[in-house]
Design a protein that fits this description.
The chain has a single domain, classed as Beta Barrel (M1 Pyruvate Kinase, Domain 3). The chain is built from three helices and eleven strands; from the N terminus they run βββββαβββααβββ. By secondary structure, it is mainly β.
């Protein structure tokens, strides 16, 4: 299913915080986004403060693989629905009351191949690994918040 990048409003479906490199991702219902990224997340600061995946794109990848891996396998911080992340570098994503500047495409690493044979290669197409962003406006975010392009 292809979703227009410019469709109205989507939804924040999940939030994960990374404890550290290779460590498990912790699912949370709410998080604080400050100007360095998500509080409690291992990766903070710089242009890659927050990573984002699309629920629809993840479902496409799982269909193509014939797999049913949990989205946390991707090791992203946020999962959104209703918006296409492909080719959105330079756009501003509003998540609840916060704003994120999309700085580029998250390239899939070898951990994706370890999770399932063929996943890393599939993710290289159409921004399948999602996007990375930096915070422009801080605030609290929660699962269920609306997401939209600013």
């Amino acid at each position: 299913m292809s979703v227009s990048r410019d469709s109205g409003t989507g939804r924040l479906e999940a939030i994960w915080l990374k404890r550290g490199g290779g460590a498990p991702m912790d699912s949370v219902d709410t998080a604080v986004l400050d100007l360095h990224g998500l509080r409690g997340n291992a990766n903070r600061g710089g242009k890659r403060q927050v990573t984002i995946i699309s629920q629809e794109r993840w479902a496409e990848l799982m269909d193509a693989l014939g797999a049913d891996l949990p989205p946390s396998t991707r090791r992203a911080n946020l999962m959104v629905s209703g918006l296409d992340l492909e080719k959105t570098r330079g756009r501003v994503l509003r998540v609840g009351t916060t704003k994120l500047l999309i700085n580029g495409e998250t390239r899939p690493c070898e951990q994706m191949e370890e999770a399932h044979a063929g996943l890393q290669e599939l993710m290289r197409d159409r921004w399948g690994g999602g996007a990375f962003a930096e915070a422009l406006e801080a605030g609290d975010i929660r699962v269920g918040d609306p997401v939209s392009w600013d």
